[in-house]
């Protein structure tokens, strides 16, 4: 998931910042909430 390319600067571009935050939020919701509360997923300790 990690790329070796540098991320572009988001300074002064609220549309780009919002797009980034929406993408991050989508990953968090998918990984932490949906998969984390699914009875079909194994528990990792």
TrEMBL record:
Protein known as: CSAD isoform 10
Organism listed in the record: Pan troglodytes
């Amino acid at each position: 998931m990690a790329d070796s390319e540098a991320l572009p600067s988001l300074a002064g571009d609220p549309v780009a910042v919002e797009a980034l935050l929406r993408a991050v939020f989508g990953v968090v919701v998918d990984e932490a909430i949906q998969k984390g509360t699914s009875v079909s997923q194994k528990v990792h300790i």
